[in-house]
């Protein structure tokens, strides 16, 4: 299966490079790169009256091969993913909860009970700095 996958990748790359080369060699409106190599209007596949030349037909064939190879690669990748058994997150190791003195509590402690209404108010905490050191 791996050898077939690599073969289809090679076919796809070759067809992509041939599409690039054929498009660059075609004769455009302003005598592009195709005119430098002798490509003219008389180079059509079915003679001077043909509707499309050899370069455009071979570009279409290379494009069909490219699309077929792309479809085959997507089908192979989908089949490979289902046979392997899941996605990328299936192989992640889940952390083991730590217990003991160094464990981080996972539950929030309950809020302290509200003081009774008849209890006197608690004294304000004592500041650690002397009163004279606080800027005014």
Quick structural overview:
By secondary structure, the chain is mostly helical. The protein contains three helices and no strands.
How would the global form be characterised? elongated
Helical proportion, percent range:
40-55%
Oligomer: single chain
**Secondary-structure element sequence?**
HHH
Count of beta strands = 0
Quickly give the structural class.
mainly alpha
Taking pLDDT < 50 over at least 5 consecutive residues as the criterion, the unreliable ranges are none
Percent range for β-strand residues: under 5%
- Compute the CA-based radius of gyration: 38 Å
Count up the helices. 3
Q: Overall mean pLDDT score? A: 74
Largest sheet: none
Keywords: Cell membrane, Membrane, Protein transport, Translocation, Transmembrane, Transmembrane helix, Transport
Membrane topology: Multi-pass membrane protein
Function: Involved in protein export. Participates in an early event of protein translocation.
Protein name: Protein-export membrane protein SecG
Textual characterization of the structure:
Belongs to the SecG family. The structure is a single chain. By secondary structure, this protein is mainly alpha-helical. Helix content is 43%, strand content 0%. It has helices at residues 2-25, 33-36, 54-84. The protein is elongated and about 100 Å long. The chain starts with a helix and ends in a 52-residue tail after the last helix.
């Amino acid at each position: 299966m791996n050898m077939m996958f690599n073969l289809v990748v090679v076919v796809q790359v070759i067809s992509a490079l041939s599409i690039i080369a054929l498009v660059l060699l075609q004769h455009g409106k302003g005598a592009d790169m195709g005119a430098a190599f002798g490509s003219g209007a008389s180079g059509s596949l079915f003679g001077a009256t043909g509707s499309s030349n050899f370069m455009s037909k071979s570009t279409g064939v290379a494009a069909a091969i490219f699309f077929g190879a792309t479809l085959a690669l997507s089908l192979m990748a989908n089949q490979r993913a289902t046979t392997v058994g899941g996605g990328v997150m299936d192989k992640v190791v889940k952390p083991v909860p730590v217990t003991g003195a160094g464990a981080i509590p996972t539950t929030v402690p309950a809020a302290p009970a509200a003081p009774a209404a008849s209890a006197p108010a608690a004294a304000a905490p004592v500041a650690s700095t002397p009163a004279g050191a606080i800027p005014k």
